[in-house]
């Protein structure tokens, strides 16, 4: 049974089938937003959800059986644990007080596309690895916001109290500027007070947008490369493990073949003894 499950998982079409199933589930969730379709085909939608959930449960059983009894190989993988958690949550009844929770859990199934597609897993792993390094960039951007927020308040709060009337409003305005959404309108209002106000805004855009964002990009790219290396190492380790398992099977097969060969030799020797004994008996009968 374990060998059969391992062969199923190794099939190239197995993961493709799961990806297609997740995509179909996503389409159904989108169709359920139509009142007309829900009214007409609600029972069919429910049946489709139950069938898809049944396939997901079967998939988990196959993967768990394939690594039995070494359960850590399945539950020690974060992506497998994520998929298993979604399956458990999907078992919540879709009626009564849990109906809304069940619908929200169905939406989580769409996230299974991330765990099913290796390229998406790599991107998410990269983002997670980048979080500690991003903390230092966030501290740097926080200092930048703090300095420019106080400076903006003192420069423009009397002229434009709607945007700079308090320190909190100044921070919100700076956030609007750093998103590059109509930031020039804010700058032109400030330039009515002082034509050199553009220096404040341009310097903040250069430092806040181009420098800080580029630092984020650099961190992500660096961690992306590290994640690729780790993934390649994991693939090499998995391949080495598979090769060792194959060698072990070959050794066992050779040992079994040797035992069979020895048994055949013993059978031949026994047959020869029987022939010799029969010859001796025939000679004695003739005498």
From TrEMBL:
Query: In terms of one coarse class, where is the protein primarily found?
Result: membrane
Query: How does this protein lie in the membrane?
Result: Multi-pass membrane protein
Which classification does the entry list for the species?
Answer: Bacteria, Bacillati, Bacillota, Clostridia, Eubacteriales
Alphabetized InterPro entries for the sequence: Ion_trans_dom, VGCC_Ca_Na, Volt_channel_dom_sf
Q: What is this protein called?
A: Ion transporter
Q: GO terms for molecular function, please?
A: voltage-gated sodium channel activity
Which sequence ranges form a coiled-coil region, renumbered to this chain? 217-287
Pfam families referenced in this protein's UniProt entry, alphabetically: Ion_trans
* Organism from which the protein derives: Heliorestis acidaminivorans
Indicate the segments forming the Ion transport domain, all copies: 12-231
Q: Which domain of life is it from?
A: Bacteria
| Signal peptide stretch | none
Q: Does the keyword Transmembrane helix apply?
A: yes
Per the record, its GO cellular-component terms are: voltage-gated sodium channel complex
Q: Does the keyword Iron-sulfur apply?
A: no
Keywords from UniProt, A to Z, are: Coiled coil, Membrane, Transmembrane, Transmembrane helix
Indicate the transmembrane segments per the record. Answer: 12-31, 43-62, 82-105, 137-156, 163-179, 199-221
Q: Where found, per UniProt? A: Membrane
